[in-house]
Amino acid sequence: MKVSIIGVPLDLGSDYQGANLGPAAMRIAGLQEKIEELGHEVTDLGDLCVPPRKNLSLGKPNAKFFDAIAKVASDLCARVEEALNAETFPVVVGGDHAMAIGTIAGVSRFFKRRGQKIGLIWIDAHADINTPDTSPSGNIHGMPLATVLGMGLPELVAVGENGAKLSPEHVHLIGIRSVDKGEKTLLKKLGVNFYTMTDIDKRGIQEIISKAVAHLVKSVDAIHISLDLDGLDPDIAPGVATPVKGGLDYRESHLIMETVAETGKLASMEIAENNPILDIRNRTAETAVELVQSALGKRIVD
Ligand SMILES: [Mn+2]
């Protein structure tokens, strides 16, 4: 398989600076080499251009830096679509999770033009389904799931193509344990499939991911993984802006990747929220690179 690495040094979606260094940390952790070890041909397309926050005005307090984020997301959408057009598998490395607005717009546009549907495995401690009306912080990294489902700020919903990029029933949100009040309402109203850490404790990740994937295999043509590293337990991924105790452990997160990979329908993935400033000796990037390997076919015994 051919793989394209796309770096998104975006930190405008969060109050914490440092996620803009995430792509560099992933490269230092050996992202390209570790994918090549699996026999894939890898091209690193470098980083998108993101303006420094000092040069920007806040824009709207309930959707901070929305215009700059919309521009980066549009650029990313185009880059992802090009990578898919070139018959490569995009591995998009961030950058805060606002990047998902662009990545998913690109994946959606590529498959929509072929009359095909996409599904989404979204791993996160948070639901990321706030809108400017419900967000307590105004930080756009808490809004990308709502945005790709067509809710929220029109300038962001319009990225790529206006409107929802996929159907809520084709979204599986895994690992949540910190959900805002407004988000609880929207999660249920939209009909997104979601699995809290309590669900995972009770049912086990194997049952949950197998059923989620079986549902997607039946109903969509391609699957995208949006991995927010704060979905993982802070023990294995401490370098994130908003860590929450009690996340997915090392084996659980690998099993998710392996199970999705086995479908043969995984078309793209992104890794968000790696913040080297908050990390411990690049542990988070190293964990992330290992998870990319599992998603791209690495097995204990081949
Ligand atoms: Mn997130």
Q: Which CATH top level class fits?
A: Alpha Beta
Q: Helix- and strand-based class?
A: alpha/beta
Ligands and ions found: manganese (II) ion
Main β-sheet description: 8 strands, parallel
How many strand segments? 10
CATH superfamily: Ureohydrolase domain
SS field, number of helical segments: 11
Count the domains: 1
Strand line-up across the major sheet? 2-1-5-10-9-6-7-8
Backbone CA Rg = 17 Å
**Residue share in helices?**
25-40%
The CATH topology is what?
Arginase, Chain A
Strand content: 15-25%
Distance between the termini: 17 Å
Unreliable spans are: none
List keywords for this structure.
302 residues; alpha/beta; eight-stranded parallel β-sheet; two-stranded antiparallel sheet; globular; binds manganese (II) ion
Any overview of this molecule?
By secondary structure, this protein is of the alpha/beta class. It has one domain: Arginase, Chain A. The chain contains 11 helices and 10 strands. It has an 8-stranded parallel beta sheet, sandwiched between helices. A hairpin with a 2-residue loop joins β3 and β4. The mean pLDDT is 97. The structure holds manganese (II) ion. Manganese (II) ion binds next to loops. The site of manganese (II) ion has 5 residues, from loops.
Short summary:
It contains 11 helices and 10 strands.
